[in-house]
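testing teh design pipeline on a random one, pls ignore if ur not involved
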């Protein structure tokens, strides 16, 4: 999921400028302006503040959507298991990434904001992924697992940047109007492939939490057996029995 994230973050602004017709030295209708002419200077002066506005809108929408999406993913991961939330968010992220490119082709500032919001929401897959890594890591090797995931994220960022540097010029030569939209459904398809990997992960997020709760109850019961007060021991034993009978409530 980190490779599509890097690719879309790299091309989002160029894609937005191209959809609005303010990319480089092009006019509003995509026709090149002769350099050095008075029309070129006027067009460049008009496009520069518009590019700043578009960049601001895209950045703010992406960051706000990322903040809200991450908070929502954290709440869901606490309510359900991280693996289950990851199974939900991976297809959702893939759909958002694919739809963002189509929405951005509308060529309005509102569509740029929607594109940024969709890309930001697609990153809500990261919090449950981090939580799941810590849960499925072998005992005593959580730091090693987190470090490995971080290393592969850095590698994905490097590969994504190289991919954009090599593929973007090739897409520009195809003659398609604003061809960067092709990368959005492509990245969505790549993100969807992570769904198969999630299915192969052990479903022990919930079971691990229940096991931890059971271990705590057993410790309480053992403590109760050493308590001199028989009423306290009976109360702790009764609580442990109710928790064992109703593990979901525990």
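output:
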């Amino acid at each position: 999921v980190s490779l599509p994230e890097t690719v879309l973050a790299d091309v989002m602004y160029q894609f937005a400028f191209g959809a609005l017709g303010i990319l480089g030295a092009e006019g509003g209708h995509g026709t090149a302006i002769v350099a050095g002419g008075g029309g070129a200077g006027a067009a460049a002066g008009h496009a520069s503040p518009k590019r700043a506005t578009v960049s601001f809108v895209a950045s703010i929408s992406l960051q706000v959507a990322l903040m809200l999406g991450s908070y929502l993913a954290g709440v869901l991961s606490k309510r359900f298991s991280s693996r289950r939330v990851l199974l939900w968010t991976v297809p959702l992220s893939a759909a958002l990434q694919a739809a963002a490119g189509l929405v951005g082709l509308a060529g309005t500032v509102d569509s740029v904001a929607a594109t940024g919001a969709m890309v930001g929401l697609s990153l809500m897959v990261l919090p449950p992924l981090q939580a799941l890594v810590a849960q499925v890591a072998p005992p005593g090797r959580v730091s090693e697992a987190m470090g490995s995931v971080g290393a592969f994220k850095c590698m994905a960022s490097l590969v994504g940047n190289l991919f954009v540097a090599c593929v973007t010029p090739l897409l520009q030569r195809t003659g398609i109007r604003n061809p960067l939209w092709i990368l959005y459904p492509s990245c969505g398809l790549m993100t969807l492939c992570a769904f198969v990997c999630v299915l192969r992960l052990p479903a022990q997020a919930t079971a691990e939490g229940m096991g931890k709760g059971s271990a705590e109850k057993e410790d309480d019961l053992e403590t109760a057996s050493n308590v001199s007060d028989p009423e306290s021991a009976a109360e702790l034993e009764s609580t442990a029995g109710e928790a064992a009978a109703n593990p979901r409530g525990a």
